């Protein structure tokens, strides 16, 4: 039990800061055990704020204060007070220079917030509130200051010393130590502060911006990874060019630094001029990284780069506005990835991710608006809702405005708010002004939690050739807040004729049709009707093309309609979506009535897609991938863990048996003995081949097992090796153990590959998986102190293995909570993420519900939980 409930912070309580900080000069004497931080702050009263009690309260946690002076006069004990989370200075002048000196202990920092040690290097993570663990400061994003950073450290242990901005003079201090100075000319909030010290390998490249600025690009990695940097560097240059072309945004410093660290809580961090990355999103070589890893790196490198404008030059006024930078930046990285690869496949992956992660969040106990209005621990709000749903909101704005007005709007935003800390309203106002549209109602999207549903009905009038679509929006009720009113929703639709061709679209109140293809209908009220005229026969509607809004569509398609759309729709996304809807329908039927025959045409449509040489192989692979067990569970009133598994396995088996010949042919036709290439075609062919392998291995016989073993042994690239290993592990027995041993022996020195080795075992659907996972906790390579390692074993099992985590015995739940209790005192951020494996507890049968609740209560009654875990547990229990 939390002794005193931690306070809730509310958006409505926002007040401008009473004091501002114009300049910060930091001086670090770095040492893993004890680092000394001296900060000189130029502070003044904020003319725009109301006067308080005259005291100044600076944030600070786990700091040992050694020295404190105002305008060079050390303060007496009566002039200040040190609290666990603050330093309070009594009656300060209106303008003054504050010097503080504190001691901190990086090597003891297991939370990985603030300054910490990763391997032999020292690095920082300050977002959201880590800077207060480095020095006393106004740790809030609307306090923007110029920073200079002086780093002093042992020259042999830490030859590389990095901080934000441009490099200044460096110096040998003669006593074995050296000094480096960095100056950041751009005012920034302290969450963007960073430093790195280490013995690192450097890869250098250059980039000339559109206006001719020369930028030195430098990637820093631990020396053994020197040959895994090429892809990250190439991705960075592509991202820099793309942002110039698509948004007119150029880079603004002389250097752009990226450091890969092996201990990192999240993906990466956009610190000004000095991005710090989880090594997972930097390092790649064809034999160590899968296609998904490569794409992930490209996306995250771009994401952090794009933050330089959407996040750094323009930042958030307060943390409730987090989606201002994250939603927009995710939208930007998604579009970049779509431009670099296959647009359909990229969109499908993004939407699958949204549906698998954000939809459940939005319907469960942790649901919150894209702009939350209250939090206990802000780190709990780096969520799929703030990021991915936030990106969908920006996407809808771009769709509603069209490319030209959207670009005018973003140009205006960058011009008007450069150097400021702003709100979501400020962003929307620029888009509204540039487009002449009233976007007031759109703000409801930021305030309204829950996934809206669109109920679509249609009506065909043969005599007049008129087709009427009626769309009703329904916003699920949430207990504690009234509906915000109807949402503006762009619905991209097409109408298909009997041959599958797009029809021209002629709305009744318009003089002429728009050309055959897609058009965006807008919903502004609870119910809207659209009358299409001039049609020769009843069309088949293709709704919400490209997933033009983050909603669920309810329309009564027949099985035959879905087969038709899956094979004919000109919108690749909707071909996939039709296949998903149909598969979902069959699978859920299979759960309740296991022996229902497959509708005619289903296997046939599968066969046609498999063998359709004209279509993008990547898209075909997506269409032929069945929805996951967890996604199916989310579609049920009560999740039937075993029933879903059984139904899904049965359908896979039927497909595998019926289409064995085609699957084998597809497998063979898409083998590519050439060098690894990262083109959409090459990626798509690997995906299709490995999909065929997955089906074939389901009914594994000697022939397919041999194929799989050969693929594993060939070491063509990590994509193929992992695909083969996955099914060898699933096959079990000696084959599995041999493959796992061989893999581990080969890769035991490469941490990211060892993570895959743990992950693949945690993912296994075999019935002894929990036992295996438990014994892997004692493996020489397992450690709770590396977040990637922890996620690969514990995270994968609890969050991605529905069948085994939710074993009816409840053993998975006990296992999870044991780990959370072990982890919480050390790394509360990661502990709070893990607890979310129990967030859907109310959706399960009574037995499991009881078992999960029991474990949640066990947590709730633990003394001294972190704020992070407390908040998640308290909300989950409700
Ligand atoms: N701003 C970073 C990104 O989106 C994420 C950092 C989140 N860190 C945290 N501790 N909550 O790229
Ligand atoms: Zn981000």
From TrEMBL:
Gene3D superfamilies: 2.60.40.1840, 3.30.2010.30, Neutral Protease Domain 2 (1.10.390.10), Peptidase M1, alanyl aminopeptidase, C-terminal domain (1.25.50.10), tricorn interacting facor f3 domain (2.60.40.1730). It is an enzyme of class 3 (hydrolase). Residues 109-192 form the Aminopeptidase N-like N-terminal domain. Residues 559-877 form the Peptidase M1 alanyl aminopeptidase C-terminal domain. GO terms for molecular function: alanyl aminopeptidase activity. Its cofactor is Zn(2+). It catalyses: Release of an N-terminal amino acid, Xaa-|-Yaa- from a peptide, amide or arylamide. Xaa is preferably Ala, but may be most amino acids including Pro (slow action). When a terminal hydrophobic residue is followed by a prolyl residue, the two may be released as an intact Xaa-Pro dipeptide. Residues 450-556 form the Peptidase M1 alanyl aminopeptidase Ig-like fold domain. InterPro entries: Aminopeptidase_N-like_N, Aminopeptidase_N-like_N_sf, PepN_Ig-like_sf, Peptidase_M1, Peptidase_M1_dom, Peptidase_M1_pepN, Peptidase_M1_pepN_C, Peptidase_M1_pepN_C_sf. It comes from the Bacteria. SUPFAM superfamilies: Leukotriene A4 hydrolase N-terminal domain (SSF63737), Metalloproteases ('zincins'), catalytic domain (SSF55486). CDD domains: M1_APN. Pfam families: DUF3458 (PF11940), DUF3458_C (PF17432), Peptidase_M1 (PF01433), Peptidase_M1_N (PF17900). Keywords: Aminopeptidase, Hydrolase, Metal-binding, Metalloprotease, Protease, Zinc. Residues 232-443 form the Peptidase M1 membrane alanine aminopeptidase domain. Its EC number is 3.4.11.2. Belongs to the peptidase M1 family. This is Aminopeptidase N. It comes from Thioalkalicoccus limnaeus. The lineage of its organism: Bacteria, Pseudomonadati, Pseudomonadota, Gammaproteobacteria, Chromatiales.
């Amino acid at each position: 039990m939390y002794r005193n409930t931690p306070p809730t912070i509310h958006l409505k309580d926002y007040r401008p800061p009473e004091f501002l900080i114009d300049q910060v000069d930091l001086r670090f004497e770095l040492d893993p055990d004890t680092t000394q931080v001296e900060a000189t702050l130029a502070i003044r009263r904020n003319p725009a704020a109301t006067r308080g009690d005259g005291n100044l309260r600076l944030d600070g946690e786990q700091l040992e204060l050694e020295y404190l002076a105002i305008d060079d006069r050390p303060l007496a004990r009566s002039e200040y007070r040190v609290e666990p989370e603050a330093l309070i200075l009594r009656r300060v002048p209106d303008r003054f220079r504050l010097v503080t000196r504190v001691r901190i202990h990086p090597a003891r920092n297991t939370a990985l917030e603030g300054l910490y040690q990763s391997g032999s290097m020292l690095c920082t993570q300050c977002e959201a509130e880590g800077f207060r663990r480095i020095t006393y400061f106004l740790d809030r994003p609307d306090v923007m200051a110029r920073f200079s950073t002086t780093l002093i450290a042992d020259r042999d242990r830490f030859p590389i010393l990095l901080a934000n901005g441009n490099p200044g003079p460096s110096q040998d201090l003669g006593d074995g130590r050296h000094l480096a100075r960095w100056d950041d000319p751009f005012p920034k909030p302290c969450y963007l502060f960073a430093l790195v010290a280490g013995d690192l390998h450097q890869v250098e490249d250059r980039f000339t911006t559109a206006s001719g600025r020369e930028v030195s690009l430098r990637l820093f990695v631990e020396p053994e990874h020197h040959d895994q940097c090429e892809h990250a560097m190439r991705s960075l240059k592509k991202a820099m060019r793309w942002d110039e072309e698509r948004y007119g945004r150029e880079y603004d410093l002389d250097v752009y630094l990226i450091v890969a660290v092996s201990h990192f809580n999240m993906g990466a961090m956009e610190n000004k001029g000095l991005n710090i990355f989880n090594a997972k999103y930097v390092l790649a070589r064809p034999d160590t990284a899968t296609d998904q890893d490569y794409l992930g790196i490209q996306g995250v490198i771009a994401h952090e780069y794009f933050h330089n404008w959407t996040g750094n030059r323009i930042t958030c006024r307060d943390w409730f506005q987090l989606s201002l930078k994250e939603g927009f930046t995710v939208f930007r990285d998604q579009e970049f990835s779509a431009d670099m690869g296959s647009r359909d496949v990229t969109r499908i992956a993004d939407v699958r991710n949204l549906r698998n992660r954000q939809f459940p969040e939005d319907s469960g106990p942790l649901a919150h608006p894209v702009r939350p209005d209250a939090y206990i621990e802000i780190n709990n709000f780096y969520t799929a809702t703030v990021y991915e749903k936030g990106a969908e909101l920006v996407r809808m704005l771009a769709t509603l405005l069209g490319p030209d007005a959207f670009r005018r709007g973003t140009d205006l935003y960058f011009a008007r708010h450069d150097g400021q800390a702003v709100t979501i309203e400020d962003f929307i106002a620029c888009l509204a002004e540039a487009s002449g549209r009233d976007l007031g109602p759109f703000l409801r999207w930021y305030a309204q939690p829950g996934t809206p549903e669109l109920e679509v009905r249609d009506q065909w009038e043969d005599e007049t050739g008129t087709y009427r679509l009626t769309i009703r929006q329904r916003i699920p009720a949430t207990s504690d807040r009234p509906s915000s009113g109807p949402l503006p929703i762009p619905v991209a639709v097409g109408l298909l004729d009997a041959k599958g061709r797009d029809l021209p679209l002629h709305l009744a109140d318009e003089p002429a049709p728009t050309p055959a293809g897609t058009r965006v209908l807008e919903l502004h009220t609870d119910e809207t009707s659209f009358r299409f005229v001039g049609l020769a026969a009843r069309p088949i509607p293709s709704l919400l093309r490209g997933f033009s809004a983050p909603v669920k569509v309810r329309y009564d398609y027949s099985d035959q309609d879905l087969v038709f759309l899956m094979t004919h729709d000109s919108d690749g996304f909707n071909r996939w979506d039709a296949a998903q809807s149909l598969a979902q329908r069959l699978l859920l039927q299979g759960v309740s009535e296991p022996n229902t025959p497959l509708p005619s045409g289903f296997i046939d449509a599968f066969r046609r897609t498999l063998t359709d040489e004209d279509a993008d192989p990547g898209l075909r692979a997506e269409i032929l991938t069945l929805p996951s067990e967890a996604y199916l569970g989310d579609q049920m009133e009560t999740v039937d863990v075993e029933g879903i598994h059984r139904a899904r396995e049965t359908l896979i088996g039927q497909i595998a048996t019926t289409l064995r010949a085609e699957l084998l042919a597809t497998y063979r036709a898409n083998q590519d003995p050439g060098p690894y290439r990262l083109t959409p075609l090459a990626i798509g062919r690997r995906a299709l081949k490995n999909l065929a392998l997955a089906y074939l291995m389901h009914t594994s016989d000697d022939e397919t097992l041999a194929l799989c073993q050969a693929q594993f042994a060939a070491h063509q690239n990590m994509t193929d090796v992992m695909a083969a290993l996955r099914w060898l592990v699933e096959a079990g027995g000696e084959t599995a153990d041999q493959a796992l041993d061989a893999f581990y022996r080969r890769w035991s020195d490469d941490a990211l590959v060892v993570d895959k080795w743990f992950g693949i075992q945690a993912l296994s659907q075999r019935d002894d998986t929990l036992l295996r996972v438990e014994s892997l906790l004692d493996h020489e390579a397992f450690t709770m102190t590396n977040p990637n390692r922890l996620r690969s074993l514990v995270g994968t099992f609890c969050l991605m293995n529905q069948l085994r985590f939710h074993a009816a015995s409840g053993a998975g739940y006990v296992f999870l909570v044991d780990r959370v209790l072990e982890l919480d005192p050390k790394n509360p951020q990661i502990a709070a993420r893990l607890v979310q494996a129990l967030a859907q507890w109310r959706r399960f049968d009574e037995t499991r519900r009881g078992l999960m609740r029991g474990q949640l209560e066990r947590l709730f009654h633990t003394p001294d939980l972190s704020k992070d875990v407390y908040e998640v547990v308290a909300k989950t229990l409700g």
